[in-house]
Design a protein that fits this description.
This protein is an all-alpha fold. It has helices spanning 4-33, 37-63, 85-110, 114-143, 148-157.
């Protein structure tokens, strides 16, 4: 069984992951409403990814005999002044999640909960990729803020859909 302190914090992280998924949906809808389909698709995929992260955490708690808590989440930000603001918010969110995952790993280590520490390692690797992706996208949208179709073209050229990661933890329900 996972350490009690780790379980408590992982349940908090489930809330953060679901909130991130909702925020990404709001960003996607914003771009969809402005007829920027590539940006919309990018953020819809991000929303699914965050939802799956939450469900990976749920599955881990179930597998270790702990009780997952499925939270309500605060409403996401839905109004953005320009094409840059959602991406800037996304990068801030990914940096915050990186700190949260690091905190989870630290708790697992402090509690000598080696299974939970190992579980967090995949998320640490994932956060490096997420921050790098959002940093790069922010560079592009800041540079092309007045030419959103250039951003769309960039996203059309780049392959951001990495596909399934065979090393990823399983999700609750097996739904990806």
């Amino acid at each position: 069984m996972a350490a009690a302190r780790f379980t408590e914090r992982l349940n908090e992280q489930i809330a953060h992951e679901f909130a991130a998924a909702q925020q990404y949906v709001a960003m996607a809808v914003h771009y969809d409403a402005h007829t920027l389909p590539r940006l919309a698709a990018f953020f819809y995929r991000q929303a699914l990814e965050e939802r799956n992260h939450a469900l990976m955490m749920v599955r881990y708690l179930l597998d270790t005999g702990a009780a997952p808590v499925i939270p309500g989440v605060a409403a996401p930000q839905t109004d953005f002044p320009d094409v840059v603001a959602p991406v800037r918010l996304a990068l801030d969110q990914e940096r915050r999640v990186t700190d949260q995952i690091g905190g989870l790993a630290a708790i697992a280590r402090e509690e000598a909960d080696y299974a939970s520490e190992q579980f967090t390692q995949w998320f640490i690797k994932e956060q490096v990729e997420e921050v790098a992706t959002m940093s790069g996208l922010l560079d592009i949208v800041e540079r092309e803020r007045d030419r959103p179709m250039e951003i769309e073209e960039y996203l059309a050229r780049e392959a951001f859909d990495r596909g399934a990661d065979p090393t990823a933890p399983p999700v609750a329900g097996g739904v990806v």
